[in-house]
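Recap quiz, item 2
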Amino acid sequence: MAQFRVCPDSGFYFDKSAESLMKANAVAGAVSLLIAGVLGLGVILTRWQEVHLLPADLFYQVLTGHGINALIFWIIFFEMAILYFASSTLLRTRLAAPRWAWLGFALMIIGMVMNNIAVLQGNSSVMMTSYAPMQAAPHFYLGLILFAVGALIGCFVFLGTLVIARDDRTYEGSIPLVTFGALTACIIAIFTIASGAIILVPTFLWSVGYIGHIDAAMYRVIWWGMGHSSQQINVAAHVSVWYLIAGVLFGARPMSEKVSRFAFLLYILFLQLASAHHILVDPGISSEWKVFNTSYAMYLAVLASMIHGLTVPGSVEVAQRAKGYTKGMFEWLRKAPWGNPVFSGFFLSLIIFGFIGGITGVVMGTEQINLIIHNTIYVPAHFHATVAVGTTLTFMALTYLLIPVLFRRALFLPWMARWQPYVFSAGMTLMILFMLGAGTLGVSRRHWDMDFTGAILSFEYPGTAYTLMAVAGIGGVLGVLGGAMYLIVTVGSLLFGKKLDESAGLFQGFGAPLAASSYNVDQPERLLMAPKLAVEQHGSGGMEAPGTFVLALALLVCFVVYYFINWDYLASVWPLS
Amino acid sequence: MSSFLPPSERIWWKTPIGKEEVLWIGIALVWCLIMFFMMPYWHIYGKQNLSNEAYQTTPQRFQARVDEMVKQYKIGEQSGIPIVKPPAGSDVYMLGRLWQWYPILELEKNQSYRLHLSSMDWNHGFSLQPVNINLQIIPGYEMVITVTPDQAGEFTVVCNEYCGIGHHLMLGKIYVKEN
């Protein structure tokens, strides 16, 4: 018999086994983030040439571990928690096959530990990408495979839970937008894991000697079907979380269900083509293939992100205006709860993801412009804007929401939580902007020594490049400090945070607080459709969210200007044909 | 609050769309199409495009072609690496291996060369500095691009694809001389 707890603050129902799984996955994610953060500090302090902390072998080893823990383990563990939340909790249903879900979790843990051990042993400093024919130890690949199988089980548990909810009719009408977004992430995840299996299983067999040869070009094409797609799971997941946070904090409803869901559908159809971004300057691949794929057919996934970029803040603006914050263009934003880390984390990640991560991604993913960017430090700058600030900061903001709701604890050191999103995003943004600059000057990524000490020939980057990397180093250290603050608050809350037995009056904005948190609910009440609006505002002629529209136009102007600056830069390099 | 509740309308796909959304989708779609057509446009009118010319090869075969060029056109040596000056307009070769770009090329300004690139072992990154042209060099594949240096001077090829512990020692040179 399924047992449910109802959170007295949020009114969310938690199935007992789903709740434990969410907690376990979130904690495992935080552990991965801790590893990634410590290693990241080693990376940035080495790339800061005046500090140059680590020796070469250790640097490459640390960089490998940093990439895998941050880009794979941290986010996918956390995304498993989100999948269980978006299915079981949001649909008020029991979780499908909890034992399978635990098996998946166990496989993910084993895989993560195995892969980290392989890297720690030192024979697998092959970077996250592990491009064949460079070879890692067999358990490096096996760890990743086990992790992926575990995640795949999690995806099917999520799908099974949707089916159960539908069969049990636990909700009215269609699934909520947030669940729809999570479903998008799940579909992308299954594609990702399939690509991973297609390339990692033969690579594992090659590493133990059963297969003689892995074609290096084929490896890159298929590996990126996993490597890039895994980051697209993030996009779908963190956009869903943005909608969730907007709903929880502001009672925001999507401006239009149709538009937001259509944008998620575009993700499902086109986002995966972006794996081509990594092979734009590879031999043996035709320009037609590159143009079609790198542009997600005709930038249809970019269109989707631009839509979410309007509708997520737009939904907040509409909700705020309804509460009376109607003065001028931006009173709704000025009067937003900037001291609440759930809000500040969400909004900062939205802005930085869009303005920096989104724009740089499209620019460097342009077939010819990639010539002046491929494998420079511009590339990690871009994906720190998308993954480290976009996804990671969003997940941090969600954690501050989940600590009281899921773990029923008060935040430990709330002042630190209040500052954390600002410190983290300021540090990361500083690092990102200056790395973008250094990349434009040609500074290489994944490179231990800008001075080339000991090389037979010699080369010097311009002095500016050193300054840029030093400022990036300062930003990176600040970012790691922000990450540490997150972990202190999170771990501190779980260990020392005040237990919340009764309603703490946290989220009275939506739903009346209940008396006590309890496990005595056998079957939650059926989830009803959202109340209809008193007045139908859509299509009434005027704009509901003019401030957001102005912000969106500002994004477009930056986008257009920066895009053509890069074409101009490209036009200045040696003619190639 | 319906972002995490079922939509308020059962037939949600028939509700009208707000004005700013329609306008924004229109603007964004136009921008997306402009960006898309910039790429074919540049293939026709731009000067920086990769050719689609590439061949499967083997390290031995490619090495033999490089050696032949070195034998024929060697004009000197720098730090034990041959400097090669092939005639303008000809096929020139450079290989990447752990941890060296080989040989050193001397080219003439404003002349075109068919540059063949391949790797002898692992992936390497051909990053021409300070011009900042970056190419992926893959073992087993021979990439051919027509390059026209339009500046004279000393240029360095940095390896920007991680290739093991000596990665940061891997440099090459291209000299471009005024003719």
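Chain B touches chain A through 94 residues (CB under 8 Å).
The two ends of chain B are 72 Å apart (CA to CA).
End of item.
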